[in-house]
Automatic annotation (TrEMBL):
Name under which the protein is recorded: 3-hydroxyisobutyrate dehydrogenase
Pfam families in UniProt: NAD_binding_11 (PF14833), NAD_binding_2 (PF03446)
Pathway the protein contributes to: Amino-acid degradation; L-valine degradation
Family statement: Belongs to the HIBADH-related family.
SUPFAM superfamilies to which the protein is assigned, alphabetical: 6-phosphogluconate dehydrogenase C-terminal domain-like, NAD(P)-binding Rossmann-fold domains
Residues covered by the 6-phosphogluconate dehydrogenase NADP-binding domain: 4-162
Entry keyword annotation includes NAD: yes
Keywords attached to this entry: Branched-chain amino acid catabolism, NAD, Oxidoreductase
Group of enzyme by EC: oxidoreductase
EC number from the UniProt entry: 1.1.1.31
Lineage of the organism: Bacteria, Pseudomonadati, Pseudomonadota, Betaproteobacteria, Burkholderiales
Catalyzed reaction equations: 3-hydroxy-2-methylpropanoate + NAD(+) = 2-methyl-3-oxopropanoate + NADH + H(+)
Domain 3-hydroxyisobutyrate dehydrogenase-like NAD-binding, residue spans: 165-292
Amino acid sequence: MQHIAFIGLGNMGAPMARNLVAAGFHVSVFDLAPAAVASLVEAGATAAASASAAVQTADAVITMLPANKHVQELYLAAGGVLDSAKPGALFIDCSTIAADVARQVAQAASERGFAMIDAPVSGGTAGAAAGTLTFIVGGSEAALQQARPLLEKMGKNIFHAGEAGAGQVAKICNNMLLGILMAGTAEALNLGVAHGLDPKVLSDIMAKSSGRNWTLEVYNPWPGVMDGTPASRNYTGGFGTALMLKDLGLAQQSALSANAPTPLGGLVRQLYQMHAQAGYAQQDFSSIVQMLQPGLNKPA
């Protein structure tokens, strides 16, 4: 595969597409934001006038979109990418959406003779930029092997969770836990600071103790503790609170459908909903610490 179409150039999609360009692929890009397209063109990609135009001669199509409705519209609407792609094209959807929607789209692709995988990612914007993402894949083994050379240019870990939709189930389990960990980490740090502890020292202590977790070590929510994180740039440029809230909602929908109790997942969803409604929907999800200390939005 040499020609790749990449649709959706947000905080995650743009660096992923950039890594494919750097790897030598011919990448056609489309996004509703002209500035996002222009940035990729500067990196060596080719701009497409529409999503349908982007996929017409592509060997593989990668999509990274915000929510169910965007994926359904792109794939299932008349004149969408399934109607426009050339025979034999491979579809890779990296969006985080409901498993049922992933299965619906995969079935539509299969009926038209296309192979497709759902491949949501973990690793954040830093992982997307560094090419170290984790891909959580649902779909056939054959489709995964076809996609692997592309995924390896954007990520470091590739897991096959099962058939179509399984990648989405695994991803929402992961993101539910991430939301819980972030809220708990913010509370612990705030408690320590309230007693006069240095947040960096406390973070180092917990990172080497039984409270160790990814948010402490990679994505610390306290400003000034860790360079390069959204917390140290006014909670911008990361994984938005609105997106975390969406994923927590997907987790609750999935829990209800399977009759699987998720009391902490339900609670953290309420916390993020309150946070979003308070005006922080576009800030990084680590800004949940601002519920505990409003105004904590600048490096110390």
